Amino acid sequence: MKRELRETADGSKTLFIEELDEHYHSIHGALAESRHVFIEAGLKFIDKDEIHILEIGFGTGLNLLTTLEANETLKKRIFYTGVEAYPVLTEEVNKLSYENLDIPELVQSLIPEIHDALWEKNHAITTLLSLKKEEKKFQEIRNQNEFDLIYFDAFAPSAQPELWTEDVFKNMFKALKPSGALVTYCAKGQVKRNMKAVGFEIERLPGPPGKREMTRAIKA
Length: 220
Ligand SMILES: C[S@@+](CC[C@H](N)C(=O)[O-])C[C@H]1O[C@@H](n2cnc3c(N)ncnc32)[C@H](O)[C@@H]1O
Description:
Elements: E1 3-7, E2 13-17, E3 22-23, H1 30-40, E4 50-56, H2 62-74, E5 77-83, H3 90-96, H4 104-116, E6 122-124, E7 129-134, E8 147-152, H5 166-175, E9 176-184, H6 189-197, E10 201-206, E11 213-218
Parallel strand pairs: 4-5, 4-8, 5-7, 8-9
Antiparallel strand pairs: 1-2, 2-3, 6-7, 9-11, 10-11
Bound molecules: S-adenosylmethionine.
Residues 24, 57, 59-60, 62-63, 83-86, 137-138, 153-155, 160, 163 line the site of S-adenosylmethionine (SAM).
């Protein structure tokens, strides 16, 4: 599917897929959304020194970049697994140029390393963060009790309803450790009911710019 570059409200750029009528991030601010949903409500919620993160939809790697940005002060040991079935091309990533991140030099220097990193292998991106990219479909995830946090960043249920089902959330629930959390920008009623049906406790939180609510689901 063809991907086009688009600018979002906070000046950060994203990709757009016409066939799905979907952006990779919120048009109200890609960077603002990533920081609000995944960092403030996710990473900063996990009270551990060592955090294992699973990202559902590695895409452009923006959520990894905001994780690195936040970890400049948090200083956690992070093991980051990014799952993606349709990798973004390096030339597409280069055009996104996230110069408005707070660590532009570090980020710019890491972008090639992140995207050239071989799939299915561990890479020490910084002394504190290790990355493993896995090229596969979300529906194939079968990890058990491995992650403290899931960044659930699939395209919206209106575009890909098959990724927001009880079956998928059952596997997300299994992949989390006890007390682990899944965060997503989505707050749709049916999605929350599907999460609840597989055992998650649901928290409704204020959403990022342009959205009233987001969801945090806990494996209580
Ligand atoms: C909303 S975008 C993710 C944005 C990403 N987190 C970022 O910061 O760029 C959704 C991602 O899911 C991927 N995707 C869609 N369907 C998938 C599937 N069934 N399995 C794995 N990846 C899929 C897309 O290629 C896309 O990269």
